[in-house]
Amino acid sequence: MGVDDYVTVDQVDANGRVTVPVLDNDKDTDGSPWDLKLSSSDPDVEVGKDSLSLTVGETQRLVLYTITDADGLTGHAVVVVPARSALRPRINPSAVPARVLAGKTTDINLSSYILTREGTKPVITDTSSIHMAKGTKDAKVASGGSALSFTPRLGLHRADLGDLHRG
Predict the structure, then answer these.
(1) CB atoms < 10 A from the CB of 85, how many?
(2) Hey, which residues does 18 pair with through a beta bridge?
(3) What is the C-alpha radius of gyration for the chain, rounded to an integer number of angstroms?
(4) Quick check: helix, strand or coil at residue 76?
């Protein structure tokens, strides 16, 4: 049984390519999911053993793929690939939390912690969206909006970017 997959910005590399491990969520109700064979007739898709690789384009697209089990039974599913412009920024889970020293002002480069689509970078455009959390002495826009100048209160043992949130 094929289960649809959805491409997110954190899966897309700097060249706009994405490899989707489509078999990770697919099942074979009468056999082993490890025996499933993957195929797609989409000419712009590279089919791997358990994944599909493709380029994110200017328009949304649906990529149909087929899985075939050891008995020759087939199932179908879709990879929903958003338009490049629809890929929303996300926190880079491998980069957080940001570590800063208590009482010391640190400029936190947003590009180091926020993933965006190719050709764009995160910028704070509305200063009213910055809210200070408990333990914050000061937080304000820096570097023309591409960084956050953050000062935790002296004596604070642990501060991370996750303590700051949009309102």
Answers:
(1) 11
(2) 12, 54
(3) 21
(4) strand
| Contact call for residues 122 and 114 (beta carbons, < 8 A) | yes
pTM, two decimal places: 0.59
User: d(Cα 81, Cα 96) in Å, to the nearest integer?
Assistant: 26
Give residue 131's pLDDT: 83
Reply yes or no: is the peptide bond before residue 97 cis, omega within 30 of 0: yes
In tens, the pLDDT along 107-134 reads 999 999 888 877 788 999 888 888 888 8
CB-based contact 150:139 (threshold 8 Å): yes
Contact 110, 150 (CB under 8 A): no
For 132, what's the count of Cα atoms within 13 Å in the CB-facing half-sphere? 13
When mean pLDDT is compared across 18-32, 35-49, 89-103, the lowest value belongs to: 89-103
The two structure tokens encoding residue 96: 């957080």
